[in-house]
Amino acid sequence: MSPMLEIRNLSVVFGGLAAMDDLDFHVEEGEIVSVIGPNGAGKTTFFNAITNLVPPTDGEILFEGNSIVGLDPNQVTALGIARTFQNVRLFAQMTVLENVMVAQHCRTKQTPIAALLNTKAFREEEAQIRARGEEILGFFGTRLIGYRLDQPAMVLSYANRRRLEIARAMATSPRLLLLDEPVAGMNPMETAELTALIGRLRSEWGFTIVIIEHDMDVVRDVSDRVVVLDHGETIAQGSFDDVSSDPGVIEAYLGRPAETS
Amino acid sequence: MTATSVPATASSSEPQWSPDPRRLVSYGAICALTMVFICLIGMPVKLDPRPLIDPILSRGYASLVWVPVVFGYSVTSFVVLEGMAARRRGPSDVLEGAIVGAIGGLGVGILGLLVDNFDLRDPLINWSPQLVDFITFGNSIGFGIVIWLVIGALCGAAGAGLHLLPETVRLYVASVVLAVVGMSFLETAATDLLQGLKLEFISDAIYAKQGGLTVRGAVIVAVLTVAGLALGRFIRANQQRAAAGRAEADLATGGGASLTPVGGAMRRRSNRELVLGGLGIVGLLLLPQFLGGIMNELLANVGLFLLLALGLNIVVGLAGILDLGYVAFFAVGGYTTAVLTSPNAPWLHPELPWFVALLIVIPIAALVGLLIGAPVIRMRGDYLAIVTLGFGEIIRLLFLSDWLAPYFGGAQGITNIPGVQIFGIATVSGTDPKAVFYLVMGFCALAIYVSWRLERSRLGRAWMAIREDEKVAEAMGINTVNAKLAAFVTGAILASFSGAIFAAKVGSIFPNSFEILVSVIILVIVIVGGMGRIAGVALGAVVLIGILGGPSQPGLLQELAEYKLLIYGALLVWMMLKRPEGLLPNVRRSRELHHEELSQDAWLKAQEIEAAAPPDPEYPGWETPA
């Protein structure tokens, strides 16, 4: 069986800097893969290249067997890849519910004319969008529903914004979910809770997940496989235990001992 | 000095405060410069003949004396940081205000001295003996300097003294001043309306023969304002008490299953808004019946600009596309209508009825929207604004050009555009502003319906997402190019309606009706009123077009017509500093955090009472990972 996402020889070059250098990567359906690496290793660029926010300079990206290089970001999302952003980028003035409603854009089809005429089909679709939005927000407990539904996203606490980011990505009905540092800046309680939720995203919602994370406890708890990036290249991959004892990885994170240089 | 009686040990916690002379001088200098500027643009001399309150205060002096009041007030304003002790107010505040005002007054006095002794009439046309007369009240220049020192000091002290009054009293004082000044300036409108209502005796009672309120009139207005304000506050307090009681009762009984106490209160509130809105519409529809021709003309102009602003509100307020060339679509609507309806059109002249022409105007406006939108839409922010500005001018210059003159008449324009035949019942044309107003209101209602429906649809949400963060919107599956084009086209069609009505109303159409200034003013209406909110846009149109006047249309403050653009600019600067969200901001932009948190707690409580069954509703799926 071919992998869900397969990346071959991916390169992204900014001027003279190769942010991604000849990278090979694959995710099997139903896997949770963690991408780790020191700051500046190219992890976020990797996500940007998959979702085509930054077009790759070279290489091939196959999603379920079809090339997605050169598609617009919205087309990539329509095919079933959704992402969150490392620096939370919600639609701040829109309400919590609207944030997840708008993300269903590519899964819905009513036209503005139908909206003007307020047709039955339009009303039904609106009700569906709303119900699905509430269902997704309900996944995060009571924090994003109830009165919160109609609050602008900007009034949410930091942790709730991170949760809403994930909810918004879920609302696009993806098959592959790319989470960019989902627990960054959360306290240990919130981190533990979200770690459990990531597991449930796969078991209950059937998402395949690629996650960028710096918190090694989270990486250990959620991932089937860990891929380590440095300078835009894969330097190691395998189970968490293999990777964490790999001398190359330790070197990338901690630097080389003085005598060997 | 403040807080001198406080022991030295305590003064470390309570900020020791003394006036900062540099601050006073700099405020005073700005105050003086402002007053000198107003004198030199000729406002006081020009407005002096008309009284504000008959024998006491002329509009000329009123145009100056507000300055020290404002500066006296603002020099003694300060921000109280949370958790910090506020500086105690006292007579020193009044003294500060007086100093600042006196410096301002001194500026005017010195200006009088200079005008009296030197001749700078060449560059400064208002550098005139009349200005000296105005400043000295017809007396010697020494008297002028002294009297302006006194006036400035008194006004500054009054401004600063406002801080000493309790909040409620300050509200009453501000409302009374606003009401009296407003009633005086809106004399034309008020007289006209009272005449239409056959209530001339009221206007005879409060207005003086040579214009302006009489003292008796001012007192009546003040008393009525105070009474109205007190009544309003009393009713609101009662309602709040009742609402609080209801909410408590709801909570105690566990509330309805889904109807939260907060939701109930919101529904009641929106019901009240509906009733008020309905009354407002009925009033608006009846209003023209009681007004004279000039006032109806003014209302029709407000309506035309409101229609334009509603269209631009979709483009700028909802989709966040800063379009500075919006007038282009207004022009396209106007010219298409002219070509299709006028017998004098140099080309085609099929002399279609207006409504049939409108059916052709819509697709043409949409097409032009697409043509202009397609190249522009790929740009963002400032670049997009500049390019749309360019396209706006290009369209006007095309209509003006000799190249297209065989089709659109060039500088001669197209004349003799017939009015609108409404099914043979009535004819709407410029000679009947009342009918134009009703026609415009019909289209405004359509525009409001369109905005309202679209905002709550898939497309409207996509627009808002693009406004918030275009890149992320694209990553969330929105085809941003299509959505932005849709906004452009919707805006273009609404503007073309306004253009079509404008052509029928004026009866002739020239390229110079579509200058950049029109685009700018429509944008200012949207910004000043409150971006993204229909009521805000309506208020913006009334304030800017109705009261100040449009680019070439007179407003209620006709004597200020010369200074219209100055006032626009000052208003815009002030708005950007103090109220960037607009006069009536979009609700979602101005919510209070505090209230929201309380409401969420109330909701959670209701949920807990309702469903005590799940062991821990707060954390479903809560498991500590190994």
Q: Can you give a write-up of this model?
A:
The complex is a heterodimer of chains A (261) and B (626). With 261 residues, chain A is of the alpha/beta class. In chain A, 38% of the residues lie in helices and 23% in strands. Chain A has ten helices and ten strands. In chain A, strand 9 and strand 10 form a beta hairpin. In chain A, helix 3 packs across helix 5 (120-138) and helix 3 packs parallel to helix 6. In chain B, helix 11 packs antiparallel against helix 12 (261-286), helix 13 (293-318) runs antiparallel to helix 21 and helix 19 packs across helix 21 (480-506). In chain B, the strands form two sheets. Chain B has a two-stranded antiparallel sheet with strand order 1-2. In chain B, strands 3-4 form a two-stranded antiparallel ribbon. Chain B starts with 7 loop residues before the first helix and ends in a 16-residue tail after the last helix. Chain B has 626 residues and is mainly α. The radius of gyration of chain B is 29 Å and the shape is globular. The longest helix of chain B is centred in the middle third of the chain and has 38 residues, at 215-252. Chain B folds into two domains: 19-164, no CATH class; 292-589, ABC transporter involved in vitamin B12 uptake, BtuC. The chains are: A alpha/beta (261), B mainly alpha (626). The interface between A and B is large, with 52 and 52 residues.
Concise overview:
By secondary structure, chain A is α/β, with parallel strands linked by helices. Chain A has helices at 43-50, 73-79, 96-102, 112-117, 120-138, 158-171, 188-205, 216-222, 240-244, 247-254, and strands spanning 5-14, 17-27, 32-36, 58-63, 66-67, 81-83, 176-180, 208-212, 225-230, 233-238. The relative contact order of chain A is 0.17.
Set out the fold topology:
The complex is a heterodimer of chains A (261) and B (626).
Chain A lengths: L4 E10 L2 E11 L4 E5 L6 H8 L7 E6 L2 E2 L5 H7 L1 E3 L12 H7 L9 H6 L2 H19 L19 H14 L4 E5 L7 H18 L2 E5 L3 H7 L2 E6 L2 E6 L1 H5 L2 H8 L7
Parallel strand pairs in A: 3-8, 3-9, 6-7, 7-8
Antiparallel strand pairs in A: 1-2, 1-4, 4-5, 9-10
Helix pairs in contact in A: 3-5, 3-6, 5-6
Chain B lengths: L7 H4 L9 H20 L2 H5 L3 E3 L3 E2 H17 L15 H27 L11 H8 L4 H21 L5 H19 L1 H10 L3 H7 L8 H38 L8 H26 L6 H26 L8 H15 L12 H23 L4 H20 L4 H4 L11 E3 L3 E3 L4 H23 L2 H11 L1 H6 L4 H27 L9 H14 L4 H15 L15 H15 L14 H18 L16
Antiparallel strand pairs in B: 1-2, 3-4
